[in-house]
Amino acid sequence: EPPYLRAFSLEHLALQTTQCLRERRRILKSRLDPDEMLLSISQFPLLGTGTYIDHQGAPNGPLLRSQLLPDICLNSQPPFTLEIGGIVDRRGVVPYTGVPVFRDTNTVWPFVDEDLPADPYKGGILTQSCESNRDSACVMGSSTVATATPSAAAAPADLSANGLPSNAPWDALLNSQPPPPSRPLLLEPPSNKNCVLLDSPLFGIGSGGVLRVTLCAADLDEARSLHDQLAPISAIMAALTAATPIVKGHLVNRDCYWDVQCSTVDDRSAQERGIVPLTTAKGTLLKSRYGSIDMYLGPDETRADPAFRRVYNDCHFTYDKQSFWKMKEDHGIDSLLALHVSRLFVRDIHYASENMLSTGETSSAMSGQEHFKRFLGCSRQNICLYPPNKCTSSGWEVEFMSLEAQLTDAENAAFITFIVLLSRVIISYRLNLYLPISLMDQNMARSQKVNAAGEQLFFFRRDVFGGRDGKSNGSGRISKRANLTPSRNTRPTSASAERGTRGMNCSGVYAKAEYVELSVDEILNGSEAFGVTGILNIIFTYLNTMRLEYDVEQALRRQLLLVKRRASGKLCTLATWMRNFVRTHPEYQNDSVVSQSINYDMLRAMNDIEEGRVAAPELLG
Q1: What gap in Å lies between CA 229 and CA 290, rounded to an integer?
Q2: Among 348, 391, 407, 605, which has the highest number of CB atoms less than 10 A from its own CB?
Q3: In whole angstroms, what is the distance from residue 577 CA to residue 593 CA?
Q4: What are the residue ranges in the chain where pLDDT is below 70?
Q5: In which order are the strands placed within the sheet that holds 397-400?
């Protein structure tokens, strides 16, 4: 175990995290009026539904340019107004997002959102807006673009049939030209039928409450490892913390807000989305600025790690070739890290303050760092890597972004504790959670669905201890759940969660599979039938080796117990609780509509639960 981990304060994590969250809530509540409540929720359920707050004001203001939201919803400080304006100006249109409506017994079908124009789309853009000339304004000299694609054999369509190859032509990758797309770069825009329509980036930036967990790393190598190993777990945690079943006063056919948030802030131009031919843009971009990661960072080229294989980066992405070669040849940055950074420079920042543009000697170094921070801030992904900060003297940091904010401080503290302990286990036990990027993207899509924590299956590495020797568990094979049968040759879960072991013994077709479709329960709590150790079982074993004080260990185990019980289905997600409250409310007409009275009663009940006046055993135990 690295020496600095011995000084890591598990006591602080166990005993002070919840206390700090409660103190922050107490301070905020002390500033409220007697008739106001403070709720930790992902989004106000009636946001965008006519008049729903006092002194709301009229929509169609000059700042938001939204037909649903008044400008009073936006913080008037320049960083916020410029960010929103930058998204709209760069895209050339106000981005519309369609969120599928949940179809109940009396829901009008096909459903039509009458709050916005009946035909808002024409070729994927709004007809009432003008085009923008801000295609990839961040042009660096005569830079060109290459599209990273490790090999044809590693395409998502071939993964389940032929498995992943053991290596890839990396040199050819770096010098390749963009291949013709094998599928449309832009899916058909969401129809206004059967969808709730949103028309402002504020539905994403100003909503979608995220519980961010920032982890400090000892050095760049550790930060790269945490970045890669935490990414495959992000979809599972998104499903487990789902908290947004209501959007714009309607029950919707999803529980998470992740993809909605990514869509509402999508500033790609028509050229970058593949709607029109490329003329001024640097290339087609397959993802929004907000989304899942495009690639793993892997180890430094001087520190080979057999667990990482380049074919895990099996999805297309665009990067700036000039900045890539400048970092690689002029500054000795390794290929993977240079690719990661050069991806940022195919997108421009939305705004820059005047002091950032200063050319004085005293501010040149700081301006450079501030510029780079702005690029990072404009591109948020499920896992973010941040370099050391000269102002705060902080080191390398990794931010986990896929958790949705929970109702109570105890829940938020429990998930913070889980992510922090998982990062310690990854470092101490050198876990191998690598998953092809294409499979991780499929997992993120599945995590958005209704009750994904209880009903969806996710691709996951069967043996999280294998692959470090470069030989074991490296087949690249994927077994669908329908092809698996429980094995009788298994050992108890707790017996296999030992440092340096390869997990459970198992036989049959899935014993040869590197990736298996598993439920959230099986991924976190383990499965003897499918030879899966379980992340929580490994964390519990780690706690046993730490020789903690009794009260500290018990506090940590109580927090992890909430995560364990929610993964097993004994406790429901906040999204499930909210959906059930609405559907059982006496005023609900089974038409997917959440009225003001239903919303008021629900928020009052949630406030009573948070303040401990009402028990919610199905949510908190």
Answers
A1: 20
A2: 407
A3: 16
A4: 1-8, 117-192, 206-208, 350-368, 370, 467-512
A5: 213-216, 397-400, 383-386
